[in-house]
Amino acid sequence: MPLQLRDYSWQQTPSTVFLSLPLRGVCARDADVFCTENYLKVNFPPYLFEAFLYAPIDDGSSKAKIGNDAIVFTLYKKEAVMWEALSMSADKETMQRIREKSILQAQERAKDATEAKATARREDQKYTLNVMMKIEEAERKKIEDLKENERRKVTKELEAWKECQRNAGGHKGAQGEEKGGREEKPFEERKQLKHQRLTGSWTSRHSAAKGRDLGSIFAVPLEKEQVPAPRSARSIAVSFTPRAFPTALRESQAAQEEEWLHKQAQARRAMNTYVPEFFDLKEEEKNPEWLKEKGNKLFATENFLAAIEAYSVALKLNDRIPELLLNRAACHLQLKNLHKAIEDSSRALELLTPPVADNAHARMKAHVRRGTAFCQLELYAEGLQDYEAALRIDPANTAVYSDAEKIRDVIKEQNC
C-alpha cells in the first residue's frame, strides 16, 4: 500500500503557488507527475501525493523541478486570488469524479497532441513533395531548353549548308550554259572523251590512293605488339591451416577444447533467457555480466552480503557462468558460510569441464577455495586433496605450495 505524503510545504502569491514535496532519493526518471487544472498527483514508490486544488490552475504553463531530494512545483493560477488552502475538502465521490474528469482531460489532450503531430507531419510531407516536384520540374525545363537550343543550332547549320549547296549548284549551271553556247562536237566524240575522262579520273584516283596507302604502310615500320607468352598449365596446391585453440596442447586436447567452447557458447546464449521473476528489473540489471561487475565492486568495499545478492540474482538469470559461483564462494568464505562456499566451489568445478588450459586458472581458484573451506571445518585431509589438485594445475604457485605444506604439518601433528 502506498504511503500518503503529508509532510509538504506551500506558499502563494495572488498569481502563483509554490509547492515543495520532500522525497528522499527522487529522480526525474522514476517520479510520475500528473497535473491538470484541478488535480495534482505525484507517484514515487512507495510514496504517493494527491491534491484536489482549491482553484483552477494553468497546467500548461506550470512547472516542476525534480532534484536534491525534493520536487518543487510552480503553479500559475487562472484567477489572481488568494487561496484559503492548497487542497479543497471533498468527499470520496467528489474526489473520484475529479480524478476521472482529470484523466479524461489528459487523454483528450494527448489525443489532440497526437493528431496535431500527425497533421504537422502530413503538412511537412506535403511541403517536401511540392518542393521536390518544383525541383524536378525546373530540371526537366532546363533539359528541354538545352534540347531546344541544340535543335535550333543544328537547324541553322543545316539551312546554311543547304544554301551553300544551292549556290554551288547555280554556279555549275551557269558554267554549263557557257559551255553549251560553244561549238558542239559530234556525239561519238563526246562519248569517247567522257569515257576517257571517267576512266582516267578513276585510275588517277586509285593510283593516288594506292600510293598513299603504300606510303602510309612503309613510311612507318611495323611495330610488333609485345604480347606475353601464354601461361603454362599447372596445378596449384592449396593448404589450410589447422584450427588453433587457446591452449598450447591443442593437438592432443582438440575434443576437450571443442566441448569447452560449446559450453561457453551455450552460456552466452542463456544470457538472453527471459525470467518472469525479474520482469520489473531495469535493463542493465538483467545482464549477468553487469551484475557480476556490481558484485565485484561490492566485494572490494567488503560489503559481502550485497555482493552475494548480486551474484545470486545473476545466477538466477544465467546459471552457466562459473565465475559467479567462484566469486560467491569467496564471499561465503569471508562470512564463514563454509558449507555454502564448498557447495559453490563444487558447482563451479562441475561447470569447468572438460579441464583445458582456457579454464585452468578458474579450476585452480575453485580447488583452493574449497580446500580453504574444508580446512576451516578441520577437514584437513579433504582440504589437502584440493590443494594438491590446484598444484597439479599450477605447480609454480608458491603461495598454494606453502599452504599445502602447512596443511601437511597439521595432519602430521594430528597423527602423532
Automatic annotation (TrEMBL):
Gene3D superfamilies: 2.60.40.790, Tetratricopeptide repeat domain (1.25.40.10). PROSITE patterns: CS, TPR. Residues 103-153 form a coiled coil. GO terms for biological process: determination of left/right symmetry; epithelial cilium movement involved in extracellular fluid movement; heart development; inner dynein arm assembly; nervous system development; outer dynein arm assembly. Residues 174-191 have a biased composition (Basic and acidic residues). InterPro entries: CS_dom, CS_DYX1C1, Dynein_assembly_factor_4, HSP20-like_chaperone, TPR-like_helical_dom_sf, TPR_rpt. Residues 3-87 form the CS domain. It comes from the Eukaryota. SMART domains: TPR. The keyword Lipid biosynthesis does not apply. Keywords: Cell projection, Coiled coil, Cytoplasm, Neurogenesis, Nucleus, Repeat, TPR repeat. Pfam families: CS. GO terms for cellular component: dynein axonemal particle; extracellular region; neuron projection; nucleus. GO terms for molecular function: nuclear estrogen receptor binding. TPR repeats lie at residues 364-397. Residues 162-206 are annotated as: Disordered. It is found in: Cell projection, Neuron projection; Dynein axonemal particle; Nucleus. Involved in neuronal migration during development of the cerebral neocortex. May regulate the stability and proteasomal degradation of the estrogen receptors that play an important role in neuronal differentiation, survival and plasticity. Axonemal dynein assembly factor required for ciliary motility. This is Dynein axonemal assembly factor 4.
